[in-house]
LacI family DNA-binding transcriptional regulator
Amino acid sequence: MAVTMHDVAQRAGVSIKTVSNVVNGYPYIRAATKERVEAAIDELGYRVNMSARNLRTRRTGLITLAVPELSLPYFAELADAVISAADAAGWTVLIEQTSASRERETEVLSGRRRHLTDGLIFSPLALGPDDIGLFSVDFPLVILGERVFGAPADHVTMNNVAAAKAATLHLASLGRRRIAVIGAHEGEQVGSAALRTEGYRAGLAEAGLPFDPELVGEAGLWHRSTGAETMSRMLDDGVEIDAVFALNDALALGALHALHAHRIDVPGQVALIGFDDVDDAKYSVPALSSVDPGRDQIAHTAVELLLERIGASGDPAPFRRVVPDSRIVGRESTGEPGDVVDVQPGGTEQVAVDMTWA
Amino acid sequence: MAVTMHDVAQRAGVSIKTVSNVVNGYPYIRAATKERVEAAIDELGYRVNMSARNLRTRRTGLITLAVPELSLPYFAELADAVISAADAAGWTVLIEQTSASRERETEVLSGRRRHLTDGLIFSPLALGPDDIGLFSVDFPLVILGERVFGAPADHVTMNNVAAAKAATLHLASLGRRRIAVIGAHEGEQVGSAALRTEGYRAGLAEAGLPFDPELVGEAGLWHRSTGAETMSRMLDDGVEIDAVFALNDALALGALHALHAHRIDVPGQVALIGFDDVDDAKYSVPALSSVDPGRDQIAHTAVELLLERIGASGDPAPFRRVVPDSRIVGRESTGEPGDVVDVQPGGTEQVAVDMTWA
DNA sequence: TTGTACGCGTTATCAC
DNA sequence: GTGATAACGCGTACAA
């Protein structure tokens, strides 16, 4: 049923190899031959069989992007950006949702589907430094985020501490003294929560404000619902605040909802800033100030690094850690619409190779 | 380098066929043999080579989901649901972003990537009834939406007219008389915009309200930004309104932003309802009333139909059109939080086969 | 219950 | 420039 190279060759009166040459753009072909083959291809409606090509070339042209869930706007936008970047390079992306569960995240690294693609861009949320062994894999891998520093792979991260500090200082610069933080993970040493909380404390310190545990709102999952719940709880507990730094935009938008429900004016009584600068932030009421962590640059860089690894033949390049530039985007929720402040810029650093690619 | 079935067979002292049997769960294998093979697999770290299997079985285990863009929350949530449904059935999803451009949508149906997967779930936004010929394809296809009725494929759609009518009546039942609609596509005969606008007019008629062209706000793209712009334009033009039906939630959230900017109270002065019931709707300020079109059911049904087609051997089943149940979810923006109204239920209908699968 | 042998559609290595 | 032909790794008649 399916028409093969063999059929085309027969039709065009050439050998199968010549058809292959035409299909793959091999330059040294007589124009007349090429035309004949192309005509045969059109007439027969021939299509390359990807499975056969993949088997032969040991490459699939696919890469995997593993994220917690697409319903979270940050990851949806990240996926969009990754797909676009890969597309521009002629590659196709397969998305894997982990639900941030240990089991699924482990599966991503070693499961059945691992072998469908040539490489992996992985944003882990459940696995941490204790699982670093799992990341010693024999395929091209780029890790997003900062949960597993030290893994033998390229990393693309965010300027978390510096950006969170800048966000906190932004609130302090408005004269706010009781700055709450929402989304903290108590006792956690790594990951975005820990780093952003660290930045928050650094910001308080630099602004000469005391750190008050009462101002720290825990929220395991960074969803809108948890943001709303955490905010509500703090308000119900009578914690006095005049500003909130939410560790991501979903939390912030949830918190905004809770503030509204408590008839608290934003930014009049409480200033609010989030983190991620998702598209929603621009259109909430009031528009949400946020930290733009350089999402597009993250996606672009991750794809670039991964494709480099996939293309690398033999020479084990040193692992790299790339930190995109981030900036504070001031909008109505902190009363400074249009204000954009650059955070200390990111950069690239080389990490010694402690492992080679198989 | 890569360990193959052959290696495993040698190691276990059996034939390659036996290894294959074990890997594929063939039941009639002596327990001892099976154990020996499994031990060999573990020791050697053997993994099935998907490319080889795909070539042999003429199947990839992948399906494509083609949507405009993942940045749009509705499609992100749809993708989430489709991936989950496919996953539960052991299938993997590859997402294709079309940017709603004719070129990319055409490519999805016939381009290079078409042959990477076993079937396609396609939500077209640029192609319409005139392009119906493009949909006569020789691979399993499920079409989402109502732009190309009549195409020889299974359809999963929404109860657009009935749901839009119900949304309009919901606003009318609050005593609103000047109900604007946002997101209309002038002159368009098919697609969500046309159908929902038709439902809007039907709702007005049933409520005994006149149709006023001034109340119709055009918006080609259904983004937040266009919703905000359209709403602003209407308000600046001095159009008198006391309610707004936005044809999707992105438009509604944008409109909400514009209303707020114009210091118009929602729902006090203007009641607002959207369409899609995306997750954001629950957490906007005020929370947005919306039409839940049965997104999960759509995703689940689409996957189910597609896998049926893929699995179908020979017998060309009639094409089906499935319409999930939809309902109105009342929240603060129409002043009736918690109110849920069922819209006339959907259903399944069989369509004559005017084409067989190749 | 297990083994042998062949073919899936390509690409790649040589000759010619 | 072009043509045979051997892999690539797996599934599956068919045989044993």
Remarks:
- Confidence is low (pLDDT under 50) at residues 351-358 of chain A.
